[in-house]
Specification:
By secondary structure, the protein is mainly alpha-helical. Helix content is about 70%, strand content about 0%. The longest helix is centred in the N-terminal third of the chain and has 35 residues. The N and C termini lie far apart (about 80 Å).
Length: about 140
């Protein structure tokens, strides 16, 4: 039985591509942290959408129609689902690029989700300031 103490030329040829990058592990861990942050964001958006829809259950409306709050909640939930889906796709694309040592950062997703959150925030502000606070008020915006 022989013990190999030194790597031979054959062992060096067997290494996978991209293994020469000394910061590879750190890059993968950073990619995973980023993915988990996007997942938390998606879950928060989903939860916020559900909360917006369920707020109607806490205050009985004067008009029995569903109103517009459910639309805002639905949009939040859909953006949350889209965030989960796109962050998963982005995670695997970055993982592949790290392995191939070809990663180049893009601004597209940051700009897209910043715009989406700004639009949703505007919708929340509009919804909050146009909804009557007085339960006896005959005017409920639809």
């Amino acid at each position: 039985m022989q013990l190999k103490l030194k790597s031979t030329e054959e062992d060096k040829d067997k290494k996978k591509p991209g293994r020469l990058n000394p910061s590879r592990i750190r890059d993968h861990l950073a990619n995973e942290r980023t993915y988990l942050a996007w997942m938390r964001t998606g879950i928060a958006l989903l939860g916020f959408g559900v909360v917006i829809v369920r707020l109607r259950a806490f205050q009985v409306p004067l008009i029995p129609r569903p109103g517009n709050g459910w639309k805002l909640g639905l949009v939040f939930s859909l953006v949350g689902l889209m965030t989960v889906w796109l962050s998963t796709a982005h995670y695997f694309a970055v993982r592949r690029d790290i392995e191939e040592d070809t990663y180049e950062p893009t601004d597209r997703w940051v700009l897209l989700f910043s715009l989406a959150v700004m639009i949703l925030g505007t919708g929340v502000i509009y919804f909050v300031f146009t909804t009557s606070l007085d339960p006896m008020s005959p005017l409920i915006p639809e």
